[in-house]
Design brief:
The model has no long low-confidence stretch (mean pLDDT about 95). It is globular, with a radius of gyration of 16 Å. With about 180 residues, the protein is of the alpha/beta class. The chain has a single domain, classed as Rossmann fold (3-Layer(aba) Sandwich). It contains six helices and nine strands, in the order αββααβαββββαβαβ. The chain has a seven-stranded mixed β-sheet with strand order 5-6-4-3-7-8-9, with helices on both faces. A two-stranded antiparallel ribbon has the order 1-2. Helices cover about 30% and strands about 35% of the residues. Bound molecules: adenosine monophosphate. The site of adenosine monophosphate (AMP) has 19 residues, from β2, β7 and α5.
Length: about 180
Amino acid sequence: MSADRETNLNHLKLLVRDVPDFPKKGIIFKDITPLLKDGPALRFACEELAEIFKPVKIDQIVGIESRGFIFSPIVAYLLGAGFIPVRKKGKLPAAKEAVSYNLEYGEDSLEIHQDAINRGTKVVIVDDLLATGGTAQAVIHLVERLGGTVVGLAFLVELVFLKGRERLKDYKVHSLIQYG
Ligand code: AMP
């Protein structure tokens, strides 16, 4: 890793704030808003997320609501790929596929439009943070159910101690900053 890149990655880490006991007791929430308001840091983070997938032809970036929507369209733009939203239950208007999953702090359901992905389409899934990997795994199911190929997954933050990467072991997982 170049010295500049390492310095920039360390800087990103300093811009992620720990908020204890949010949204419930015992959870240390990784708040990325200090990073988002820093222009050069935001640009560097988005460019880094896109960089790893540049050698491959990616058709679409799948973004996960809500904080995944901050980075995924920018990564799509940088790669010249399309953007597909995966949204919380009841938000998408047309015919959809749904999947339920467990979160680090609760249970939820995600949906994708049935016509979002064509068979054989190469996609990258982008989210802000990898914790247990439950969300990412649910989105992989949705993409594969529609016939898409998951080329990889990219996260700004990885909580290594929650072992989400093990759950996603059949896939290329990329994260910019790690904790634990
Ligand atoms: P998981 O399914 O456990 O990998 O959780 C990942 C999703 O939950 C991501 O979309 C994150 O935005 C959110 N999330 C889980 N744990 C945290 C945390 N400690 N801080 C911030 N966001 C989190």
